[in-house]
Amino acid sequence: MFVGHATLAFGVVALLVGRTGVPRRRVLALAVAAGLFAALPDVDMVAALVGVVGVDPTQPLAAANSFWGASTTAHRGVTHSVVIALPAAAAFALAPTHRAL
Known about the structure:
Layout: H1 2-18, H2 24-39, H3 60-71, H4 82-94
């Protein structure tokens, strides 16, 4: 799950920016920044680990269900909002650089 968001963002940015004639090092830096930023919404899933505390270790399905149940309390909230993503994307795109890459 974490890898999916990051990989998609990396690929989309690399593909789109790469077609604009921007130097390859700059494309790579922007794609890496996009990938890292795309992974941030899923960091809230760490809190879901609380859901597996105290679960019988001999019941793997119970642990999985408990984890996913706990994940719904925080995950998919404001961190997944387009309201956050669009201004963040614009800020990354318009951010000045201090040196050419």
